[in-house]
Amino acid sequence: MFEKPDELKELFNSKSKEIKAVSDVEQLRIEFLGKKGFVSGLMQELRNVPNEHKKEAGQKINEIKQYIENSISEKMEEIKKLEEKLLIDSAEAYDESMPVSKDMGSYHPITLVKREVEEIFKGMGFTVEDYSEITDDYNCFEALNIPKYHPARDMQDTYYLSSNQLLKTHTSAAQNTILRKYKSNLDSGNPIRAIFPGRCFRNEKIDACHENTFFQMEGIMVDKNISISNLIYFMKTMLSEVFKTDITVRLRPGFFPFVEPGFELDIQCLICNGKGCPSCKDSGWLELCPCGMIHPNVLTAAGIDPEEYIGFAFGLGLTRLAMMRYGVNDIRLFNSGNLRELSQFTEKNFSRPVNE
Ligand code: PHE
After folding, report:
1. Which of 68, 127, 144, 341 could form a disulfide with 258 if both were Cys (CB 3.0 to 4.6 A apart)?
2. 202: Cβ below 6 Å to ligand 1?
3. Are residues 86 and 117 in the same domain?
4. How confident is the model at residue 54 (pLDDT cuts 50, 70, 90)?
5. Which is nearest to 4 in space by CA: 51, 60, 88?
């Protein structure tokens, strides 16, 4: 009888138990499922199994392969969650047990972070725009080069309304409207520079890290000679001001149909300065801001000639930024209405005064 698959399962389970980092999961995958891994070793040994047992042994190998594949993806999820929790736990803490202030209202933490980012961009010539929470398929997807049935729609589980409208899943939904509103700037030789913060909705299962209602801040700039360097400059300047320290950024390729090329902008981990620590999953970097150069189809949809103009767009996760900034480890706090905790985030936490 061919017992090796059972032994392999045991070996896998004992190794899997020891694993604590994403990179180790990858190592484990290579060790077991890689070209020269244990499973393919077993496949080769199948040749030596007597014919009458071949079928059964083959099935067993397939079962163990399936088992290892499933366990590895479960492990990956589990470790990612753990690492995210560690990251949040290690940020600057606030005191959950502070008494409630009875005589003063206070700003919501998202409002505070939003205003600070707005001030920074205003200082760089951007206008701040508002946009509705309810929009339609055209603005949320079609105008952004995401046609019907495009798989990119699956990344944003959308709340559709019976009126044929929908709740916007990202602030990019405002791009078309804002590009149209300001395209006359271009005719008079001025750039379009706008940011638009907003509440977004996706059908997420709610837990400490996921909300169905969250905030983003979108930014766009369009002119004649915009390049990726402009994008990097604005993001670096803004993030350095928000975190009150010089931030190092890097770009990795990222796919979004409405930008080409598209990137994920990472910042160097502020806790370990890039050396690698649990907060940054030992990579030295934190993913913060998807961005890219606006796709020609998006400009065309807004009536702007992509042969003549070019621009960048970014989508900053404001809720995530607020969590990092304040060390909030449970996203549910923001929509909880819990004044005892929410009233602690006053503008005194900022060096920049908040007007109003
Ligand atoms: N709208 C995208 C999202 O929410 C993020 C994004 C914005 C990407 C702008 C690129 C440019 O997933």
Report:
1. 144
2. no
3. no
4. confident
5. 60
